[in-house]
TrEMBL record:
Pfam families: COX2, Cytochrom_C. NCBIfam families: CoxB. This is Cytochrome aa3 subunit 2. Residues 106-221 form the Cytochrome oxidase subunit II copper A binding domain. CDD domains: CuRO_CcO_Caa3_II.
């Protein structure tokens, strides 16, 4: 009862007990059945155990003892486990089938997610007008199945949006697939679910399901031509762009300026909700703060410390990067 009461308080954007799609509902149903079944077993075992205190000693012949022992071994050790595991399988196998990305008449949207130490690369290979790339944010259409093709760039990570279902390993050299669907527009939390190094816990992903029209508008605003215009050629930000080309361009892409691949794509950085894969909220001055203190905020991340760059340069870089918001 206590467990039941405690679980009733489970909600929030990363709770599996608050499903927002069919795959997650299937998984949570199995979870409740297993909890119920496990609770019944716990009560039975406890009852038997308490019964042994109450039972009077009886004298039996060795043959009687053996007969009783055999009954318990066959009943409790073979019949009960076989029956209960068969029942769970009969329920679990069809549920597992429903989670597979089987062919559909209308092929679903494909979104590629690539795990890095410690951030997320998100790619939309089928976007109209050309592939769209972003990082640490995943916008998906609501009310329709979406196939996620996931892999790891360096070590094994795992893609997990608890309220939509999952999770699935992101293994270097291998493309794993999972089909998820969000019932309606909403924001979800996602988290790397496989230990991947010192900052594993700080590998969060912002997931937002939006209507079809909004989704297509979001993609269109991130076409290379649009992003190139966004990076600008005005006088005001020229020093920032120069500093970017000197210090950042070999690792980061900003459409129209650079094509670095080692770090997150920054072409639409200003439109994201957080920095450093969920380390801090995106607000005015946040990028500059991150550029100055990122090794303190997220120790061990792969971006070198910027101690050798002048504060004024970091500030102009931060101010310009924040303008990259389609
Ligand atoms: Cu990536 Cu844990």
């Amino acid at each position: 009862m206590l467990i039941g009461l405690l679980l009733a308080g489970c909600a929030g954007d990363q709770s599996i007990l608050n499903p927002a799609g069919q795959a997650a509902r299937d998984v949570v149903m199995i979870w409740w059945i297993m909890l119920g079944f496990g609770s019944v077993v716990l009560v039975l075992v406890t009852a038997f155990w308490l019964y042994t205190f109450k039972r009077k000693a009886v004298t039996r012949t060795p043959a009687e003892e053996r007969k009783i022992a055999r009954r318990w071994i066959v009943g409790g050790g073979i019949v009960l486990p076989v029956a209960s595991i068969t029942a769970l399988l009969a329920f679990g196998v069809p549920t597992g089938q429903r989670l597979l990305p089987l062919p559909l008449e209308e092929p679903p949207e494909v979104i590629e997610v690539i795990g890095h130490q410690w951030w997320w690369e998100v790619r939309y290979p089928d976007a109209e007008g050309g592939e769209v790339v972003t990082a640490n944010q995943l916008i998906m259409p609501a009310g329709e199945p979406v196939d996620f093709h996931v892999t790891g760039a360096d070590v094994i990570h795992a893609f997990w949006v608890p309220r939509l279902g999952g999770k699935i390993d992101m293994i270097p050299g291998r493309m794993n697939k999972i089909r998820l669907e969000a019932d309606e527009p909403a924001v979800f939390g996602a988290q790397c679910a496989e230990f991947c190094g010192a900052q594993h816990a700080q590998m969060q992903l912002y997931v937002e399901a939006v209507g079809r029209d909004e989704y297509e508008a979001w993609l269109a605003a991130r076409q290379t031509s649009e992003l190139t215009a966004l990076a600008g050629n005005d006088q005001q930000h020229e020093p920032a762009r120069e500093a970017f080309m000197t210090h950042c361009a070999s690792c980061h892409r900003v459409a129209g300026l650079s094509s670095g691949k080692a770090g997150p794509d920054l072409s639409d950085l200003g439109s994201r909700t957080s920095l450093g894969a969920g380390i801090m909220a995106m607000e005015e001055g946040a990028v500059t703060h991150w550029l100055k203190h990122h090794q303190r905020l997220k120790p061990g991340n792969k971006m070198p410390s910027h101690d050798n760059i002048e504060t004024a340069t970091l500030e102009s870089l931060g101010a310009w990067l924040e303008t990259l918001a389609p």
